[in-house]
Amino acid sequence: MVLPKNLLKSREGQLVLITIVFYVAVGIASPSFLSFESMDSIITDTAILMIMACAQMMVILTRGIDLTVAANIALSGMVSALIAMHLPGTPLILVMSAAVLTGLVLGMFNAVLIALLGIPSIVVSLGAMAIYRGMVFVLSGGQWVNSQEMPASFTSFPLARVFGISNLAVIGLIICVLAVLMMRYTRFGRELYAIGGNPDATSYVGINIKKRLFAVYTITGLLGGLCGYLWVARYAIAYTEIALNFELLTVASCVIGGVGIAGGTGTVLGAVLGALFLGVLQNALPVMGISPFWQMAVSGTAILVAVIVNSRGKRQKGLQILRVSQ
Amino acid sequence: MEKNTATVIPNSLPVSFSDRFRSREALLLGLIAIVVVVNSLLSPYFLDVYNLLDSTQNISEKAMIVLTMTLVIISREIDISVASIIALSGVLMGAAAAHGADTWMILLVGLGTGTLAGLFNGLLVTQLELPSIIVTIGTMSLYRGIAFIILGDQAYTSFPASFEDIGQTYLVNGMIPTQLIAFVFFAIIFWIVLHKTIYGRRLYAIGNNPVGARYSGIRVNNYRLVLLTLNGVASAITAIFLVSRIATSRPNMAMGWELEVITIAILGGVSIFGGAGKITGVILAVLLIGLVQFGMQLINVPGVIMSIITGLLLIISLVLPIILSMFYKRRRA
Asked: What value of ipTM does the predicted structure carry?
């Protein structure tokens, strides 16, 4: 009986339970929600969020926040869409590499400012997200790239199936597993926990914080680039406003998954489960016959509930010796 | 006999001329001068008093939130729900107007919504001791989400004429828009509060060391609650001016303004870590962004380009002092 108790005490266990209960409850009301197709589409829809939640988790773990992920997706997605449109003969792998490379460069730009110059990540990413989003407009001239202008090979990849599972879901799951392994078992991952827990002590121990942070933001940018291609190809459309406010969903996934905003605590699995919970929630709304306009308020409430639950039990207050006279 | 010289303590540290020259305000003034010169070269309509005053309408609306946001950030909090509060109180004002409310009632609904929304943020932050960035990420979705639930993709467009006058009136020979007057009024009040009163000094204390401030008898949570509520009120005032000027309210209005407001405050020299920043710097940053925006409008540059420039200005204003100080250090070494 020890194992189940511990499982339910952990955020991951609670999330799995809540997600399953919610999923089954909606499924009882409308059985089509429990079908394999529906499960498949939830995973496919949520894959990009799961990938970026892993990335955001690393950033939040090291006491930062990266608000550029959505703008990065839009810009690298647009780059890949424009290449596919103007040079239809380009092999898919090159188009994808272009998107990944774009994301990498954007991530390195953030990394230089945040890790090397020491400017707070929230400020850098606020500025950078405006710049990247604006560059999408400049590159595309404000035009849309729609599905007719993209070659079939470009748009069919994310939904093509291997063993009955879409490529998008496969890529998402592989990256999540790699992220879990990296953060849990590699030296780099453990060092990130150390940085988040106590940066001063970490640097006394001899870990080069600047290098590690540089890597964190660069990896986040790289994953953003990959997701940029996946997003544009999945929805077969590229325009300036794609993935608007998506960065907040990645932060929300982490908070729901129990990643501490003060750094140093949380797991990749939690962040991924948080993303999955949001995915189930969003897919359940239309099934329950609730207007899509409710989506925003529901995810806002989910974030607030999660953060309130997070704060329970681990309060650290300064010790107050004297009573305040009322 | 001992000499008494050691007890003479100056009120402030000596400030050399080169310190002033390297200050945030000097940097902003320099940038403003460059922008004025470039803009007047680009367009003959730029240096025109009527045009310049008219152009303040748009920026003054945002700038009212910048003032309260400055206080919020100085006391080490942040609020990214402001644009959503604008949308929510805008939509509720529209709903009130659609149900036949008169202008006073509409204003009451708008201000009430903003106050309650800000208070809710404040209560979550102070009573449950949650970090304000996460709370306001949540309420940002929640407030705009409620606006979407109420109105979907529709818009309210009918308002009483006396309500529309609020944002569409120009005073003093039809030159100065009401927004500018309101902004100047609030800017003076906030300058006095922050720099000339004990409350302002306490905000710096809270921002520099909240625990230390608490131990020295400052009721830190009361200040946080008041500031976050004030931010909601300021957003409601912005909503009133915005909705009455364009005579429309829809759930997706003021999208992304929270970032612009925070950007202007940081650009004005407010430290994101709290504890530092001046109203004068923030006002100069408002002026800078306003002039850049106006210049771009004159030469028909789309708004998205403007956001690139805002972002670049923010990053340059942060990187430049760092690079300059590296340069100075190297010269001294």
From this structure: 0.82
